[in-house]
């Protein structure tokens, strides 16, 4: 798609990543971090998880669609390897090693720990009272995402041969989003359980599915620049930002319990998806320039890039340090806890995630050079290597 002088796309020129998506990650993880300091009833940390779900669904789908457009295929083995290299090193350092050490002096239920390692811990959380490393219960959302990755890769491996793959993917994503909402409605109306609706894979999959659907829509627009002009104008309009902010605030201030257990998650996911696509459509406006400037602020980008490690480690840091701030005024204690959780996460990103990411890029570059592949495959590998991971 050509880019004229009066167009702007929210891409970080220094990294090739989309700055607004990393800024959304930063916003989401800070919601979770501050919420866990004891402000759950004030700061909507749960909405941060929904934003992560939507971004994950979008990014993974966007990458595999680009890979297929460039190479005509899908390497399921490399898909899982990339996910392993993204997730495993921080997980091993933050969850596995501390759990082993902690279990030498404290009770840990081995089956609960295995549930964390094999990404089914959300179902253990629903059962209640897991005995694991204090603070490591946050991996429930990671379990939901990993269950999606496994299923999505297998689904795409099957769909990729179909000439109607894009349509089928849109239909399946829409069906999953609707089914997830209906499941929450059913549970809320028949056997109310907040933990079941909040932690269940089936009840939270709509966030990821809406991210998948938004990636399909954007890819369709990107590949057919001469079609969908009206849809492109709508999704790229600054009114999308107004809609997103308004919808998000409504989902927070409307306190009806039935709404909060059912429609709230879907609304927040649609809001996040609309902002992701808005930032990708090339268009010039004062609001877009403002969003770009804020998104590219160095602290915002660092927190966004480190959001995975921050998310994994912050609650364990709170468990270790909260007694130190017990007598402090609430605002100071919240600030100290938040800063400590973010700082440790950024350090882990800097010295664990970042070196692994550089290793991945060197491997991809070496693969291109060694195989001397065609330009189509080179383009696919490049997009896969630089597109960024998900939370």
TrEMBL record:
Entries under InterPro entries matching the protein:
Acyl_transf_3_dom, Acyltransferase_3
Indicate whether Transferase appears among the record's keywords: yes
One example of the protein's molecular function in GO is: acyltransferase activity
Residues of the Acyltransferase domain:
21-350
KW Membrane (keyword) present: yes
Write out the entry's keywords from A to Z: Acyltransferase, Membrane, Transferase, Transmembrane, Transmembrane helix
Membrane-crossing segments per the record: 21-39, 45-65, 85-105, 138-159, 166-185, 205-222, 234-253, 265-281, 302-320, 332-352
- Entry protein name: Acyltransferase
Native organism is Lysobacter arenosi
């Amino acid at each position: 798609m050509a880019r004229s002088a009066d167009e702007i796309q929210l891409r970080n020129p220094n990294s090739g990543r989309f700055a607004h998506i990393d800024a959304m990650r930063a916003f989401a993880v800070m919601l979770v971090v501050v919420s866990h300091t004891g402000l759950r009833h004030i700061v909507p940390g749960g909405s941060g998880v929904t934003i992560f779900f939507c971004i994950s669904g979008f990014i993974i789908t966007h990458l595999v669609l680009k890979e297929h457009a460039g190479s005509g295929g899908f390497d399921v083995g490399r898909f899982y390897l990339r996910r392993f290299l993204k997730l495993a090193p921080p997980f091993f350092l933050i969850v596995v090693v501390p759990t082993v050490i902690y279990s030498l002096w404290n009770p840990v239920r081995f089956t609960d720990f295995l549930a964390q390692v094999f990404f089914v811990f959300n179902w253990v959380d629903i059962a209640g009272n897991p005995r694991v490393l204090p603070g490591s219960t946050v991996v429930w959302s990671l379990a939901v995402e990993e269950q999606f990755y496994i299923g999505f890769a297998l689904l795409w491996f099957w769909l990729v041969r179909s000439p109607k793959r894009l349509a089928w993917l849109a239909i399946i994503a829409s069906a999953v989003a609707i089914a997830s909402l209906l499941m929450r409605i059913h549970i809320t109306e028949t056997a109310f359980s907040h933990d079941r609706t909040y932690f269940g894979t089936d009840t939270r999959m709509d966030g990821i599915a809406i991210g998948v659907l938004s990636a399909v829509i954007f890819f369709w627009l990107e590949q057919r620049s001469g079609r969908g002009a009206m849809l492109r104008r709508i999704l790229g309009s600054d009114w999308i930002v107004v809609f997103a902010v308004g919808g998000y605030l409504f989902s927070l201030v409307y306190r009806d319990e039935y709404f909060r257990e059912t429609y709230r998650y879907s609304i927040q996911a649609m809001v996040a998806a609309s902002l992701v696509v808005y930032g990708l459509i090339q268009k010039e406006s004062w609001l877009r320039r403002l969003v770009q400037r804020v998104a590219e602020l160095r602290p915002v980008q660092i927190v966004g890039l480190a959001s995975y490690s921050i998310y994994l480690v912050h609650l364990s840091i709170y468990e270790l340090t909260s007694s130190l701030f017990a007598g402090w005024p609430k605002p100071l204690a919240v600030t100290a806890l938040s800063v400590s959780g973010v700082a440790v996460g950024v350090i882990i990103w800097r010295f664990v995630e970042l070196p692994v990411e550089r290793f991945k890029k060197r491997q991809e570059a070496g693969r291109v050079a060694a195989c001397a592949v065609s330009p189509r495959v080179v383009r696919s590998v490049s997009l896969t290597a630089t597109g960024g991971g998900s939370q």
